[in-house]
């Protein structure tokens, strides 16, 4: 008895707890396995963290809001403290949103925290995807995790849209009206699907509670499941790292989880939360009281969706006039279907890109050292073209605002956008590829001839030369350690036939790798050194 | 530790698995990897004074966090809402938010500062193992699958297997069928509006429901119109009907109207058109008097009111449907019947 007491005193409370947990859940093994796991350090690795942390903030602030929000569309007469709407007929959902804003202390703050966090979540997830794309982090073995991350991005947009609609205000109601119009345009199933979604005719009195179920239960549950898979795979693969001396496909270089990353990443959560909180307390977002409750007749000029839906809205706006067709008795609304196909098609290409590139290179090795974007010129150029395409669609959602703010003709702005949608990506592709190849040549020059030192020396015979400082071994490694690929010819298979598959792969490999700059080899390096010494 | 060194030894001998390199140019002629760059010593590593200062800064940041959280609690009560003062909401939101922000930033910046100045910052390397299982593990896994197959007879017993596939394919179907009652079959609800509910419905102002005399409508003026009685409906019928029946009423100079049907369906230059955009259903609420153009603010579809609302710009494909109007004995505008075609966005069965 006395023995036990002494041990307890010796270890203290923490040791006692640790012992308790280990004997029941085996926590010692977990700490031993994960406690010193190495994570590499780079600012761009924090983009995914920002997304994760804003999701946690969404869970916290959203939970608060559920205690006060009433998601019913029953009609009520507003009797709250917001004077301009006193006596107005509105849905209970809209009235309770007003109550959260004006009568619950901290309610407006939490609404704004929730909305800002949602905007940040999708933005950070999108930037994280771009980082992963441009550094080639999606290559084997991470192709599946790219798709999981893609699903998270889509779910983020779904969560955003369903939440944006919940206050049942005029602005979001018009957003739902647009969704309804798009659904009705679906071939064969359109009218029925709209009726299923809205519980009858638009707007009905069902859509808000239904969106509420999706928004607070189904979408977040799916996000949590996909997040768990996403992070689980990060643990399995270990994190990628940027090329640099000592960094290989067979190791991971960085700092241990405990204590460095617990402090850095844990602290970063509080910083992200703090930034959202500070923004929410100072900057108004979605002032629903200005819009009034939903009514199908009025609308305000300059209506805008949340930023991440913009590219789909822009696609709708850029559709040409009069492309509806009637086949027999069936109406095909190409002005709706075409933008939908463009949006879905664009996202589909994003989702499958890793498999396309993997098929072309045929490189089955595991890749853990990230590419510098310049060292994969064609991929980087394709990414720039994709970003441009998305950006034009996105800007297309603001044609009216661009026209009014810059005093331009709306028609001209729209036509310009329509042209840019096709021309922009081509310009972006071409210029990015040239830029990457030039940067690679510059890298070669630095490796072979060093840096300009700015020191001019006059030689005995009168010639002036600038002294070049040779690059150090670490920089040489950083600038030369990348994977080079060469295009392949379409070769006949065992039966002596050149298949269509082989032809396509050959053509694509040519498209990807014909223009390329090779990394400096040791032989070239030595030759350059020798050459330099002769001078 | 022993386990680790063994694994490292295995690594240096041979790769765990040789993968195809595809189109990669594999060369042995690479510059030598000089290894991880040496750790740069920080001030806090070499000076006790700096180390103590950093520790103090971290503690101060954590203390600031405490101050911020307490301030937030105080602000919650200290700045109550005052119904007579609109600024009270802003004050409460700002000070509550600032307090919480300080509480969060103190912890966050403190922890990161701690990590960056006082925790080790020399990079370390850890071996990776390829994701693929070793040959032994894969063989063992295959053996497990083979045993399971043999013991259950899964590949051997075709009847069991196929009937199971059938059962598994069908069991979720009831769950899908269960959702049918989410909404009724729309039937022809999309073809009718409240204008057709009875003959000669008066045009009334939205939202107050007052009737409109033809003489009230001046050239160039715009009326937002609903059918009489709509404003008295209960929700949700009121919104459902309004979403189809909303109408814009404009008086043009009759000589400016270029379309005969439009002139006939109107009354002395007064014409009524559906306000629901034929693109995706937003209200076409903006009227530009000198061009007679109606503009939808959502996607900028533009309709020419002088030419039977044909589409002159934007993604819409069809003109806005016109509502035929007349004047009753008392001089009020009435609609003798419904629109001649479905209003709003297109749908598959529209022409059927």
| The level-1 CATH class of the domain at 41-299 in chain A | Mainly Alpha
Instruction: List segments of chain A where confidence is low: pLDDT < 50 over at least 5 consecutive residues.
Output: 1-8
Taken as a percent bin, the fraction of beta residues of chain B is: 5-15%
CATH architecture of the largest domain in chain B: 3-layer Sandwich
Q: Could you give me the name of the CATH homologous superfamily of the domain at 41-299 in chain A? A: Cytochrome Bc1 Complex, Chain C
How would you state the average pLDDT of chain B, rounded?
Answer: 92
CATH topology of the largest domain in chain B, what is it called? Answer: Rieske Iron-sulfur Protein
Query: Biggest interface and which pair forms it?
Result: A-B, 144 and 105 residues
Number of H/I helices of chain B: 9
Taking all Cα atoms into account, the compactness measure Rg of chain A is 29 Å
Brief rundown of the structure:
With 535 residues, chain A is mainly alpha-helical. Chain A has helices spanning 2-25, 27-34, 46-66, 92-102, 107-134, 143-165, 170-184, 190-198, 207-237, 257-282, 310-318, 334-361, 377-396, 399-405, 410-449, 473-480, 500-513, 522-534; strands at 38-39, 75-77, 89-91, 241-242, 251-256, 325-327, 330-332, 369-370, 451-458, 464-469.
List key phrases describing it.
heterodimer, A: 535 residues, mainly alpha, Cytochrome Bc1 Complex, Chain C, two-stranded antiparallel ribbon, two-stranded antiparallel sheet, 18 helices, 63% helix, 7% strand, disordered N terminus, B: 352 residues, Rieske Iron-sulfur Protein, 12 strands, 37% helix, 13% strand, extended
Describe the structure.
The complex is a heterodimer of chains A (535) and B (352). With 535 residues, chain A is mostly helical. Chain A has 18 helices and 10 strands. Chain A has helices at residues 2-25, 27-34, 46-66, 92-102, 107-134, 143-165, 170-184, 190-198, 207-237, 257-282, 310-318, 334-361, 377-396, 399-405, 410-449, 473-480, 500-513, 522-534, and strands at 38-39, 75-77, 89-91, 241-242, 251-256, 325-327, 330-332, 369-370, 451-458, 464-469. In chain A, the strands form 5 sheets. Chain A has a two-stranded antiparallel ribbon with strand order 1-5. A two-stranded antiparallel ribbon of chain A has the order 2-3. In chain A, α5 (107-134) runs antiparallel to α6 and α11 (310-318) crosses α13. Mean pLDDT of chain A is 94; it is low at 1-8. With 352 residues, chain B is α+β, with helices and mostly antiparallel strands. Chain B folds into 3 domains: 43-117, no CATH class; 135-179, no CATH class; 192-351, 3-layer Sandwich (Rieske Iron-sulfur Protein), CATH 2.102.10.10. At the A-B interface, α5, α7, α8, β5 and α10 of A face α4, β1 and α8 of B. β5 (251-256) of chain A pairs antiparallel with β1 of chain B.
């Amino acid at each position: 008895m006395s023995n036990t007491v002494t041990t307890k005193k010796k270890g203290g409370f923490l040791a006692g707890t640790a012992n308790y947990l280990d004997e029941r859940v085996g926590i010692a093994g977990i700490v031993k396995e994960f406690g010193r796991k190495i994570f590499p350090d780079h600012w761009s690795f924090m983009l995914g963290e920002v997304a994760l942390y804003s999701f946690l903030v969404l869970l916290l602030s959203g939970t608060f809001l559920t205690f006060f929000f009433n998601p019913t569309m029953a009609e009520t007469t507003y009797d709250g403290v917001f004077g301009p709407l006193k006596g107005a007929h509105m849905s209970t959902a809209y009235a309770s949103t007003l109550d959260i804003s004006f009568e619950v202390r901290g309610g407006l703050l939490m609404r704004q925290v929730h909305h800002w966090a949602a905007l940040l979540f999708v933005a950070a997830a999108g930037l994280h995807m771009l980082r992963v794309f441009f550094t080639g982090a999606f290559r084997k073995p991470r192709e599946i995790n790219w798709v999981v991350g893609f699903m998270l991005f889509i779910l983020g947009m779904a969560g955003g849209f369903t939440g944006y609609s919940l206050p049942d205000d005029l602005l979001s109601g018009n957003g739902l009206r647009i969704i309804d119009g798009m659904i009705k345009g679906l071939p064969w199933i359109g009218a029925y699907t709209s009726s299923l979604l809205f519980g009858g005719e638009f707007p009905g009195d069902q859509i808000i509670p239904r969106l509420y179920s999706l928004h607070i239960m189904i979408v977040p549950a799916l996000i949590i499941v996909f997040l768990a898979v996403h992070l689980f795979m990060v643990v399995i693969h270990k994190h990628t790292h940027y090329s640099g001396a000592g960094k290989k496909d067979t190791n991971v270089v960085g700092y241990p989880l405990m204590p460095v990353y617990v402090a850095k990443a844990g602290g970063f959560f509080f910083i992200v939360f703090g930034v959202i909180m500070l923004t929410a307390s100072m900057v108004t977002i979605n002032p629903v009281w200005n819009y009034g409750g939903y009514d199908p007749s009025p609308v305000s000029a300059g209506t805008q969706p949340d930023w991440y839906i913009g590219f789909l809205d822009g696609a709708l706006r850029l559709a040409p006039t009069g492309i509806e067709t009637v086949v027999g008795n069936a109406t095909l609304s190409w002005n709706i279907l075409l933008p939908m196909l463009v949006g879905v098609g664009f996202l589909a290409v994003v989702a499958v890109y890793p498999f396309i590139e993997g098929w072309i290179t045929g490189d089955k090795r595991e890749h853990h050292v990230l590419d510098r974007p310049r060292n994969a010129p064609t991929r980087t150029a394709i990414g720039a073209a994709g970003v441009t395409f998305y950006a034009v669609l996105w800007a297309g959602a603001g044609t009216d605002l661009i026209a009014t703010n810059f005093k331009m003709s709306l028609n001209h702005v729209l036509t310009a956008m329509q042209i840019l949608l096709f021309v922009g990506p081509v310009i972006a592709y071409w210029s990015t590829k040239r830029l990457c190849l030039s940067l690679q040549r510059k890298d070669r020059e630095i490796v072979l001839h060093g840096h300009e030192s700015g020191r001019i020396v006059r030689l005995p015979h009168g010639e002036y030369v600038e002294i070049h400082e040779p690059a150090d071994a670490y920089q040489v490694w950083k600038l030369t350690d990348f994977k080079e690929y060469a295009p392949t010819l379409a070769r006949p298979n065992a039966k002596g036939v050149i298949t269509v598959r082989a032809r396509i792969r050959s053509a694509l490999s040519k498209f990807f790798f014909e223009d390329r700059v090779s990394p400096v080899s040791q032989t070239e390096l030595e030759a350059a050194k020798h050459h330099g010494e002769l001078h | 530790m022993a386990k680790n060194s063994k694994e490292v030894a295995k690594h240096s001998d041979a790769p765990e698995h040789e993968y195809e390199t595809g189109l990669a140019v594999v060369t042995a002629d690479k510059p030598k990897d000089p290894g991880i760059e040496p750790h740069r010593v920080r001030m806090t590593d070499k000076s006790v004074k700096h180390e103590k200062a950093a520790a103090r800064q971290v503690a101060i940041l954590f203390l600031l966090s405490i101050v911020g959280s307490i301030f937030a609690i105080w602000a919650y009560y200290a700045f109550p809402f005052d119904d007579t003062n609109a600024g009270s909401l802003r004050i409460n939101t700002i000070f509550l938010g600032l307090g919480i922000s300080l509480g969060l930033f103190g912890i966050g910046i403190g922890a990161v500062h701690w990590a960056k100045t006082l925790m080790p910052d020399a990079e370390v390397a850890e071996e990776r193992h390829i994701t693929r299982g070793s040959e032994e593990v894969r063989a063992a896994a295959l053996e497990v699958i083979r045993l399971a197959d043999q013991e259950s007879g899964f590949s051997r017993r075709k009847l069991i297997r196929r009937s199971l596939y059938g059962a598994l394919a069908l069991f979720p179907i009831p769950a899908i069928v269960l959702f049918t009652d989410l909404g009724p079959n729309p039937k022809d609800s999309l073809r009718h509006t409240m204008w057709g509910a009875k003959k000669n419905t008066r045009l009334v102002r939205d939202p107050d429901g007052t009737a409109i005399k033809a003489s009230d409508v001046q050239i160039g003026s715009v009326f937002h119109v609903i059918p009489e009685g709509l404003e008295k409906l209960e929700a949700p019928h009121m919104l459902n009907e309004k979403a189809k029946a909303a109408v814009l009423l404009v008086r043009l100079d009759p000589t400016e109207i270029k379309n005969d049907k439009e002139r006939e369906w109107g009354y002395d230059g007064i014409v009524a058109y559906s306000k629901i955009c034929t693109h995706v259903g937003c209200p076409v609420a903006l009227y530009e008097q000198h061009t007679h153009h109606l503009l939808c603010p959502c996607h900028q579809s533009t309709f020419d009111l002088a030419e039977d609302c044909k589409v002159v710009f934007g993604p819409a494909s069809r003109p806005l449907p016109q509502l035929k109007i007349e004047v009753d004995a008392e001089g009020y505008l009435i609609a003798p019947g419904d629109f001649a075609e479905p209003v709003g966005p297109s749908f598959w069965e529209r022409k059927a």
